[in-house]
Write a structure and sequence with these properties.
The complex is a heterodimer. Chain A is an alpha/beta fold. Helix content of chain A is 30%, strand content 27%. Chain A has one domain (2-219): 3-Layer(aba) Sandwich (Rossmann fold), CATH 3.40.50. In chain A, the strands form two sheets. Chain A has a nine-stranded mixed beta sheet, sandwiched between helices. The longest helix of chain B is centred in the N-terminal third of the chain and has 17 residues, at 86-102. Chain B has helices spanning 15-19, 44-48, 86-102, 119-124, 143-157, 168-181, 294-304, 312-316, 347-353, 382-397, and strands at 2-5, 25-28, 31-34, 54-57, 73-76, 79-80, 83-84, 106-112, 129-134, 161-165, 185-189, 191-194, 201-207, 212-217, 224-228, 245-248, 260-267, 280-284, 307-310, 337-341, 358-363, 376-379. Classes of the chains: A alpha/beta, B alpha/beta.
Chain lengths: 266, 398
């Protein structure tokens, strides 16, 4: 069985908050913010490795990312978690690609890999929060998708997945190949041991550019992106309001009651 | 192709360096220089440059043919088992404003099985036309047949704009439709407008967990499509005197092409409602101490007619299901009232709730970061305060 996991390297937003925003422009200074594997993608990688460990058949796990050369670091993390192969899709022409262009590039790479029974992605990346690339890949490959899964059972030729929806769960059956996107709760990603980390460092990472993928160049990067960002700005910071200290429990409860009345919630 | 600095025009004023949200611009020998490994070509530097020294060249790409034929605003009317989602009405309210700015019509696309009776509500909430795709294969939401239905209506009736709710359904369907018809899609918008000069849709959305906002256009492709965050747009008051036209659109869906099968729908037994739909959310964190204490929050939520949410700490401890988690790896919510109880307010939590209308925080630590975003910050012991508050609320309602 062949499993492909698509991942993204993202900035760690818990660190962004610590980095100052520029006083003049109010924008975030991203310099020096560490990069991590998108947290949702770790669930996808972990699930793939668990399937490999669970099934008796031979399972091959390939992780793919599109990004600048330093995204290699994120692929090494996935290798240390137990993935077998890693592919970096890197080309200056890919820069500025929106979700349509990114989904296209990833699907050309998956076609080039050739064999796949399962494709796993995180539900969304924490920098863009779009959740659009996974379904885009599935459409390009003409395969079904199951988004937002929090439980997965892999049988001989099909999967049974629990899809988290508003107010409940849908239990969905689908024949492979299928693309699925992972939510938190699917599993608890492992923390790689030192030995696995050093072993991952010596593994070779395949690098493919646009020519290797035989991409149609008007479908990648800026020219392949229907959407353009026309303005980037900082949101109005929420004005922290009144902090009320030194009240007894009773006074505090009455104070909240007054607030609820004042704001017309009761 | 791409982005370049014209060294001749660059004065080394540093405005672009300050404007770049990605730290990808620096000054080298008093000239701006782009670090291409960090640059996402977002254009913030070009906006900031007063000397036109930054050039962004966008290739022609393919674009949509006969772009001028596309006209009108269309809303995806999301229903499950014949029950319309509230966000569909919110979209009609917003869609009406956009349609009026353009001087074009507002329509709804309604896929489903035996759902014609829902059209009246869509008219009452602002739709001029309802494109009805009634088919047994659309009885429950499945990605494949719904994509076929929506893509077929778009291909036939050519709307300039299509809006979907950013629900699990909308976020599953819209990117699939976008890839099929090869157009742009902007996720989770919180603001929509029409550019008065070009008539293009201006789509504003948060990125980086709300640390920056971006306004996005889709100039060369049609339709321009957005998913819109539920509860951000106002639901219009229905006008049952409004009439509209139902257009039946036959779409061929081969049952054999439907690859997924829903074996079962499990409704989660919950003490209170869903956080996605609730106007009031009472949320608990690590400060609750143990899972049993969430009952107190459930009582408070019930007294207010709200739902219970939780921070990541409380979910990771197993006190609450993940479906109740608010924050970066949970849900983004914007209720009218958010009461944070025993939640310190890590940035991963704040990004999921800081757009709530009113925030009340109860925490015993006066230094807790939650107080920086709370409209009303009560420093005190929630175990003492909340039971008294519940009692007072119960007294009120008697």
């Amino acid at each position: 069985m062949d499993i492909i996991v698509c991942i993204k390297q993202v900035p760690d937003i818990s660190e962004i908050a610590k980095v100052k925003t520029d006083p003049e422009t109010g924008t975030i200074v991203r310099e020096g913010v560490p990069s991590i594997v998108n947290p949702f993608d770790e669930f996808a990688v972990e699930e793939a490795v668990r399937i490999k460990e669970r099934l008796e058949d031979e399972v091959n796990v390939t992780v793919i990312t599109m990004g600048p050369p330093q995204a290699e670091e994120a692929l090494r993390k996935c290798l240390s978690m137990g993935a077998d192969n890693a592919i970096l899709l890197s080309d200056r022409e890919f820069a500025g690609g929106d979700t349509l262009a990114t989904g296209y590039v990833l699907s050309t790479a998956i076609r080039k890999v050739g064999n796949y029974d399962l494709i796993l992605c995180g539900q969304q990346a924490t920098d863009g929060d779009t959740a659009q690339v996974g379904p885009g890949i599935a459409e390009n490959l003409h395969i079904p998708q199951i988004t937002y899964i929090n439980k997965l059972e892999v049988q001989k030729k099909k999967v049974i997945a629990h899809r988290e929806i508003e107010g409940g769960i849908e239990v969905i059956e689908c024949r492979m190949p299928v693309l699925m996107t992972a939510v938190k709760g699917l599993n608890e990603p492992r923390i790689p041991k030192y030995k696995a980390i050093t072993k991952a460092l010596s593994k070779e990472i395949t690098v493919w550019n646009a020519a290797d993928l035989e991409c149609e160049m008007d479908r990648v990067g800026l020219s392949g992106s229907p959407t353009n960002v026309v303005k980037v700005f900082s949101p109005e910071p929420r004005a922290g309001g009144r902090k009320i200290e030194g009240l007894s429990a009773n006074e505090a409860a009455m104070k909240i009651l007054d607030i609820l009345k004042e704001e017309k919630f009761i | 192709m791409g982005i370049q600095v014209d060294i001749e025009k660059c004065t080394g004023c540093k405005k672009c360096v300050l404007a770049c949200p990605f730290g990808a611009m620096e000054l080298v020998e008093k000239k701006a220089q782009i670090n291409y490994d960090e640059c996402t070509i977002c254009g913030a530097c070009a906006d900031a440059c007063e000397f036109d020294a930054i050039e962004i060249e966008r290739g022609a790409g393919k674009g949509t043919e006969n772009i001028e034929e596309y006209n009108g605003v269309m809303v995806f009317a999301e229903q499950h088992a014949g029950e319309m989602k509230n966000c569909s009405y919110e979209l009609l309210g917003e869609g009406r404003k956009l349609a009026e700015k353009l001087g074009e019509e507002l329509s709804a696309i309604l896929p489903g099985s035996r759902v014609e009776s829902l059209a009246g509500e869509l008219f009452a909430h602002g739709a001029d036309k309802v494109y009805l795709v009634d088919d047994e294969n659309l009885a429950e939401y499945k990605t494949g047949p719904y994509t076929t239905a929506v893509a077929a209506v778009i291909a036939k009736y050519k709307p300039a704009i299509v809006l979907y709710g950013a629900t699990t359904t909308g976020r599953d369907l819209a990117p699939r439709v976008a890839a099929r018809i090869q157009t742009g899609l902007t996720a989770d918008c919180t603001g929509l407008d029409i550019d008065p000069e070009t008539g293009l849709l201006l789509q504003t959305r948060p990125a980086f967990g709300g640390n920056i906002m971006a306004t996005i256009k889709c100039p060369r492709h049609r339709p321009q499509m957005s998913t819109v965050r539920p509860k951000v747009m106002k639901k219009p008051d229905p006008d049952y005197n409004r009439k509209g036209e139902i257009i039946h659109v036959p779409v061929e869906i081969n049952p054999k092409s439907v690859k997924t099968k829903i074996l079962e729908g499990i409704k989660l037994a919950k003490a209170t409602g869903d956080i996605e739909e609730a106007d009031i959310i009472v949320s608990g964190g690590w400060g609750l101490g143990e899972p049993e204490n969430f009952r107190m929050l459930e009582d408070l939520a019930r007294a207010l007619g709200g739902a219970v949410g939780a921070s990541r700490a409380a979910v990771d401890a197993g006190w609450q299901p993940h479906s109740n988690q608010v924050g970066q790896t949970g849900k983004t919510v914007c209720p009218k009232l958010y009461i944070a109880c025993g939640i310190s307010g890590a940035v991963q939590h704040l990004v999921g709730m800081q757009t709530s209308d009113v925030i009340i925080a109860i925490n015993k630590d006066p230094q807790a970061p939650i107080f920086q975003v709370a409209d009303y910050g009560i420093v005190g012991d929630l175990f003492q305060i909340i039971p008294k508050l519940i009692k007072a609320l119960e007294k009120q309602s008697v």
